[in-house]
Amino acid sequence: MNISLDISMYPLQDEFCQPIIDFIERLEQAPGLVLERNSLSTQVFGDYRTIMNLMTKELETVFEQNPHTIFVMKMVGVNRSKAKIDAC
């Protein structure tokens, strides 16, 4: 099953940009997923188990480095990477 994940990361520290960039770059290394970055969040599209296994690993990595990090995530049970949003 394919899903879509929208994820925002908020490290509660003065130097917050690099941890976000590092996190996204690690996500981009995962084979078989499509990532789209924008200024507010990152969207991840692909297989449910692949995404969830990746999130388990990468969230743990972030929390080990900075436990004062907030993540906001939204998921939908389909791949919306090609959704026609201007048709609303």
Keywords:
88 residues, alpha+beta, 4-stranded antiparallel β-sheet, globular
What does this entry look like structurally?
With 88 residues, the chain is an alpha+beta fold. Helix content is 34%, strand content 32%. It is built from two helices and four strands, in the order βαββαβ. The protein has a four-stranded antiparallel β-sheet with strand order 2-3-1-4. The longest helix has 18 residues. The two termini are 25 Å apart.
Strand content: 25-35%
Pattern of helices and strands: EHEEHE
Strand count, sense and barrel status of the largest sheet are: 4 strands, antiparallel
Q: Order of strands across the biggest sheet?
A: 2-3-1-4
Total DSSP E strands: 4
Helix count from the secondary structure assignment:
2
Radius of gyration: 13 Å
State the assembly state of the protein chains: single chain
Share in helix = 25-40%
Mean pLDDT: 94
Terminal residue distance:
25 Å
* Global outline: globular
What is the SS-derived class? alpha+beta
Low confidence ranges: none
Strands, helices and their partners?
Elements: E1 2-11, H1 17-28, E2 34-37, E3 42-47, H2 48-65, E4 69-76
Antiparallel strand pairs: 1-3, 1-4, 2-3
Entry summary:
Helices cover 34% and strands 32% of the residues. The longest helix is centred in the middle third of the chain and has 18 residues, at 48-65.
